[in-house]
């Protein structure tokens, strides 16, 4: 039986298709066969798994036109993302997507570098700062709320950089001294375009015994992802102190629809301060500072424009 199996294997080996005596005796034929095999293998296309060639590259959306309607729309974007306590102040700019009566009044006659920039009553046709509230609560807490509008001769991106420069400009109003510095910046948590920490030292030298060093959270918001001509900056007191119970400064900026190199800047300031029974003197001192601060900003921008 074993002999029969061996005989069958020998017969199969000699008759198998791959066994060819001629090939053994003809090396040139072997080479041709090898080349043919390689050519067949080279014709096999390479397959890349998981990759698809895109039909077209998506286009970046066009920026929105800079105007009051899109500015108000952008404020809703800022309100949705902010972690600062500024929703009430944002709503003072716009209502239901339209300029509020306060905003419309401010934009009707902004300061433009000429004439006396001063405080005015709501509804007045003069330009300047509108006094919204000046209350002395129990002869101890001064509530001081103001708003203003300025038209500046430069694009909004320049205004932002000048605002940062203006923050560190010392103020000496005789009875009021203010100095600010930038601290190490916080981690931007994605809720703002830029984020800063600012330390401000405030001294009221008028027998009021008012001296304070406080830290502020300063954030800049792009109101639309593809626009660099509509912004909101917000500066809020991080921790209440003996002198400042609350402090918020908001400034909205958008390019003039008729001139992209000019900017409307509208601000709202709200302070609650320890009056030390000297409410009127304290308010007078801060009112002078507000006007001086805005005029300094205008001068910085005007010099940059030259």
Concise summary:
The protein has about 300 residues and is an alpha+beta fold. Helix content is about 35%, strand content about 30%.
Describe the structure.
The chain has 306 residues and is an alpha+beta fold. The protein has one domain (68-305): START domain (Alpha-D-Glucose-1,6-Bisphosphate, Chain A, domain 4, 2-Layer Sandwich). It is 34% helix and 32% strand. The chain contains eight helices and twelve strands. A hairpin with a 3-residue loop joins strand 4 (128-137) and strand 5.
Give the helices and strands, then pairings.
Blueprint: H1 2-15, H2 21-25, H3 27-42, H4 68-81, H5 87-93, E1 94-95, E2 98-99, H6 101-108, E3 118-120, E4 128-137, E5 141-152, H7 156-167, E6 171-172, E7 176-182, E8 194-204, E9 210-222, E10 230-237, E11 244-256, E12 259-274, H8 279-305
Parallel strand pairs: 3-4
Antiparallel strand pairs: 1-2, 4-5, 5-12, 6-7, 7-8, 8-9, 9-10, 10-11, 11-12
Q: Kindly state the mean pLDDT as a whole number? A: 82
Find the CATH superfamily. START domain
| Strand portion | 25-35%
Uncertain runs with pLDDT below 50, 5 residues or more? 1-25, 33-42
Note the main sheet.
10 strands, mixed
Strand elements, count = 12
Keywords:
alpha+beta; 306 residues; Alpha-D-Glucose-1,6-Bisphosphate, Chain A, domain 4
């Amino acid at each position: 039986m074993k002999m029969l199996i061996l005989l069958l294997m020998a017969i199969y080996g000699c008759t198998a298709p791959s066994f060819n005596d001629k090939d053994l005796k003809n090396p040139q034929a072997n080479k041709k066969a090898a080349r043919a095999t390689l050519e067949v293998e080279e014709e096999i296309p390479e397959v890349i798994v998981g990759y698809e060639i895109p039909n077209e590259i998506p286009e970046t959306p066009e920026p929105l036109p800079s105007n009051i309607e899109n500015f108000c729309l952008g404020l809703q974007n800022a309100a949705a993302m902010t972690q600062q306590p500024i929703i009430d102040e944002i709503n003072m700019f716009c209502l239901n997507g339209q300029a509020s009566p306060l905003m419309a009044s401010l934009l009707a006659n902004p300061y433009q570098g000429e004439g006396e920039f001063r405080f005015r009553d709501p509804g007045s046709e003069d330009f300047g700062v509108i006094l919204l509230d000046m209350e002395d609560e129990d002869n101890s807490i001064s509530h001081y709320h103001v708003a203003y509008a300025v038209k500046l001769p430069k694009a909004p991106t320049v205004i932002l950089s000048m605002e940062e420069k203006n923050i560190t400009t010392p103020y000496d109003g005789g009875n009021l001294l203010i100095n600010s510095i930038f601290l190490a910046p916080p981690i931007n948590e994605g809720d703002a375009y830029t984020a800063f920490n600012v330390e401000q030292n405030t001294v009221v030298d008028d027998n009021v015994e008012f001296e304070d060093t406080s830290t502020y959270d300063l954030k800049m918001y792009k109101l639309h992802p593809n626009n660099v001509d509509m912004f909101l900056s917000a500066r809020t007191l991080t921790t209440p102190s003996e002198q400042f119970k609350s402090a918020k400064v908001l400034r909205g900026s958008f390019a003039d629809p008729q001139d992209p190199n000019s900017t409307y800047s509208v601000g709202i300031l709200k302070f609650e301060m320890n009056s030390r029974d000297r409410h009127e003197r304290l308010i007078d001192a801060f009112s002078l500072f507000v006007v001086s601060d805005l005029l300094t900003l205008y001068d910085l921008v005007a010099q940059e424009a030259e």
